[in-house]
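input
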Amino acid sequence: MRFHYTFQKVVDLKANEKTQAEWMLSSALGELQAQEKCLEDLLEQRRGLMLALQHAAEQKTPMSKLREMQDYVDYLDHCIARKHSDISRAHIEVRHKQDHLSTKVLDEKVWLKAKDKAQTAFQQSMILREQNELDEMATVRFAMKSL
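output
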């Protein structure tokens, strides 16, 4: 006789939910990395522009050109500040997804432990049943030899 767990579909569902939570965490981490990469690009662009602005200031560059470069630096500063905010939100989302995954992992472990207990109980009952059958066979043989 094979072991058949009554709540196997629940165990499967919990495993699927855990897998889905892992994917969602992976997606959130990917988004965080993309936001951080974008911030690095903005900071690098700002550094390059600041060097160009400094070089232009040392040369005979028209004031309108300097002002235009400074306006762009201000725009980049605004983008950088917004990107920091985006990164902060992405960190919060990652923490939320990690908590969600932890909950799903714990939930799955509970159901797997219940399944293991049920399987152990089944195996014990099967061993007991087998032992009873062997005892009965031995009793019948003993009785047959006595006659």
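quick obs: The domain at 7-146 is CATH 1.10.287.1700 (Helix Hairpins).
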